[in-house]
Design a protein that fits this description.
Helix content: 40-55%
Number of helices: 17
Number of strands: 7
Radius of gyration: 21 Å
Distance between the termini: 25 Å
Strand order of the largest sheet: 1-2-5-4-3
Oligomer: single chain
């Protein structure tokens, strides 16, 4: 993967040309997208697809009439993806509507989170967002009833992870790492969440709002109507979603772009941001998690920090979070799936239980016994085929190499990280951090 190309794309998506980028990467980020050759675009567009930025980039280029400077084959590839994803998302919306209707008929209390609930507040049109599943926040007592209702549509339980249930209509084909992502979805996948924040996965509890369902609002996309979270709750959910992935392994650049776009679009809605601030200030851990996410989004996309959230995003001198954002956030975020392990440098800051941290570190560096499948929920017949077995073997081999390679990178980075922590003078001031300067 060319980090130079990905950096140029991120730079093109920034919301303020007056905000200086990180000086160490300035030349690379300022390279115009039009300077990349047809071969560059052909080799790197798959990376943009996986991090989720292909379609938001094309939307910005169309909006600002900057697309004409790109090579003609690159424009054709972007337009093809726009058309294909528009068709894909239209089909997924119909599938989601069927699931929502069945759940309502079963008396399940649920709200849609992420996905379709983000249109048009985060991205303005359906085609601008690629997704692979539907996420629903379900009242805890209704989770099993929701599963049973969806099973009538052909969904099958594929995994249970804490308070999350994953269901899928079995697929007959698998997608490999370099697969084209915009074909019509085969089958469907749904994640049922029964908690606003799943504290069990990382043993990191937070005080989350208890009135999210009571304040949910009706929303309509196309011909499908459903409940979604109120704007302040939805924004918090998006922030915690990114933070959950920070405590995991990899985060799509799309998710941070959506947060940046929302802050840019609603920067003058002081009432909204006062509500968000009240939610964050109810829990110091949540406020610090939000600072990590919001400052990372600002560092990448130069989105405005709402005045009501300045208190949350102004971190104290010597804060490891400040230091990590300044030195490592972009190196962790500007990566192809499955990423790297530089987020582990900051993880000890979020673990007060040292034995729990050591267990977490061992699991992340050497996930013995934790072997994710190439395709969760594939049909049994397809899973027994030689083609799938060979593809799954390639996937498992790539995962082993990934852990060896990124584990070594983490080991070397840990030495520098400890030096930075001890020196204490490498972190920028809060004003500098918000501006993204070195």
């Amino acid at each position: 993967m060319s980090r130079e190309f990905l950096s140029s794309v991120v730079y093109a998506l920034r919301f303020s040309a007056n905000e200086p980028a990180d000086n160490a990467d300035a030349d690379r980020k300022r390279r115009a997208l039009s300077s990349y050759s047809v071969r560059d675009w052909s080799r790197q567009i798959g990376v943009l697809d996986r991090v989720g930025l292909t379609l938001p980039l094309y939307a910005r280029l169309l909006e600002e009439e900057r697309y004409a400077s790109l090579p003609a084959p690159a424009i054709e590839a972007l337009e093809q993806r726009r058309r294909d994803n528009a068709q894909r998302m239209s089909g997924m919306l119909m599938t989601f509507g069927q699931a929502a209707m069945v759940l309502r008929q079963a008396g399940v209390r649920f709200v849609c989170v992420k996905g379709f609930s983000l249109i048009p507040d985060y991205l303005t049109e359906l085609w601008q967002r690629h997704q692979i599943d539907f996420d629903l926040l379900v009242v805890h007592e209704d989770a099993l009833r929701a599963q049973q209702a969806l099973e009538k549509l052909g969904y099958r339980l594929t995994a249970v992870d804490g308070d999350e249930r994953r269901l899928r209509i079995p697929a007959s084909r698998h997608l490999e790492h370099d697969a084209y992502l915009y074909n019509p979805q085969e089958g469907a996948a749904i994640e049922l969440h029964s908690e606003f924040w799943d504290a069990g996965a990382e043993a990191y509890p937070m005080h989350c709002p208890r009135d999210a369902f009571a304040q949910a609002e009706m929303h309509t996309v196309g011909s499908v109507s459903f409940l979604r979270l109120a704007r302040h709750h939805a924004f918090l959910y998006q922030v915690l979603h990114v933070f959950r992935h920070f405590l995991g392994s990899w985060a799509r650049l799309l998710w941070l772009y959506e947060i940046a776009a929302f802050m840019h679009r609603h920067q003058d809605d002081d009432t909204l941001w006062q509500k968000v601030n009240a939610l964050l200030c109810a829990d110091g851990r949540m406020a610090e998690a939000a600072a990590l996410v919001l400052l990372s989004a600002h560092n990448l996309y130069a989105c405005p920090i709402p005045p009501a959230l300045e208190n949350v995003c102004t971190l104290p001198a010597g804060s490891p979070v400040r230091l990590w954002i300044h030195r490592y956030a972009q190196r962790w975020l500007l990566t192809d799936m499955p990423g790297n392990k530089l987020n582990l440098l900051l993880h000890p800051h979020f673990y007060s239980d040292r034995p729990a941290w050591r267990r977490h570190l061992a699991k992340r560096l050497a996930p013995v016994g934790n072997r994710p499948l190439l395709c969760e929920g594939i049909e049994r017949k397809a899973a027994k085929s030689l083609a799938y077995k060979a593809a799954n073997l390639r996937f498992q081999t790539a995962r082993i190499w990934h852990h060896l390679n990124t584990g070594a990178g983490f080991a070397f980075a840990s030495i520098a990280w400890e030096v930075h922590l001890r020196s204490g003078h490498a972190a920028p001031s809060p004003k500098e951090l918000r501006r993204g300067e070195s």
